[in-house]
Amino acid sequence: MPPSTHSPTPSPAPSSLNRNGYILLTAYVLITSTLLIRISRQPYNSRLKAGQYEKVLKGTGLAALLIGFGISGRLNRRRSEVER
To answer: Transmembrane stretches, by residue range (predicted)?
Structure first.
């Protein structure tokens, strides 16, 4: 198979991905716990709080996932480049 003329984008170093992953995880835990504590202190009934808990967990989880993919650069590469 001839070498590809397409030059793949260089992937970040594994140590920087680990560092960014820990930073992302720490930020996720801090933001999520802060929002959950704020909701728990509200004087509303438990059904309304449950809906707010659900929205916070979905929102922060989705944001962390998208930021994580953005940091790793996997959204900008083709599948064949990611599997190499």
So the answer is: 20-39
